[in-house]
Amino acid sequence: MMGGRSENPELGAFLESLHYGDILSGTVTAIERFGVFVTLDDGPDHPVFPGVGFITIPELSWRRIETAFDVVQVGQHVSAEFLQFDTWNLEARLSLRATRPDPFQTFADRTAVGQKLHGRVTQLVPFGVFVQVADGIEGLIHLRELASTPVESPSDVAQAGDEITVVVAEIDRERRRLVLSRRQSSSEHP
């Protein structure tokens, strides 16, 4: 965008007045592959984009989603947390998920390392498998933790959709990462 702030002093001043953590409300005006535009209730129009507010796909939900349509629809009124002023595009970067409880932290509150859980294999990757152990909660079993004997490839011992018993090996609240083991659950059958 040419000149940006100087051509649009009202928009620039509005964006500079915002602070991290402010809750802004507005209407979803466009949904793109890379994110969602929001026309804010308070604040000037944007000269180029269909909304001054912008929410990237990861900031829409704590869950892993395929598309923005899984979470929002055009015309929906939303409240989102202000993250930062995108000076290049003259936008308010927003987070919808920041206004919702994080299911990972709730899960971490009631789960202990060493605990057995039942889960469903959701995805096989070269270094292991992902297992859903609760709504919106997936953990990784590293290849070496998949079976009591060494495994060449995850598909040797697991397929997507398998129901398995796992043991919680690590809960990393900061990175929101759950590490699981199947080897330690030792109740495997070939």
Query: Helix share of residues?
Result: under 10%
Across the major sheet, the strand order is 1-2-3-5-4
CATH class of the largest domain: Mainly Beta
Class by helix and strand content? mainly beta
Pattern of helices and strands: HEEEEEHEEEEE
Low-confidence stretches: none
Q: What is the C-alpha radius of gyration, as a whole number of Å?
A: 22 Å
Tell me what the CATH architecture of the largest domain is: Beta Barrel
Topology:
Layout: H1 9-16, E1 23-32, E2 35-40, E3 53-56, E4 77-86, E5 91-95, H2 103-109, E6 116-125, E7 128-134, E8 137-142, E9 163-172, E10 177-181
Overview in brief:
With 190 residues, the chain is mainly beta.
Describe the protein's architecture and organization.
The chain is mostly beta strands. The chain has 2 domains: about 100 residues, OB fold (Dihydrolipoamide Acetyltransferase, E2P); about 80 residues, OB fold (Dihydrolipoamide Acetyltransferase, E2P). Helices cover about 10% and strands about 40% of the residues. It contains 2 helices and 10 strands, in the order αβββββαβββββ. The strands form 2 sheets. A 5-stranded mixed β-barrel has the order 1-2-3-5-4. Strand 7 and strand 8 form a beta hairpin. The longest helix is centred in the first third of the chain and has 8 residues. The radius of gyration is 22 Å and the shape is elongated. It starts with 8 loop residues before the first helix and ends in a 9-residue tail after the last strand. The model has no long low-confidence stretch (mean pLDDT about 90).
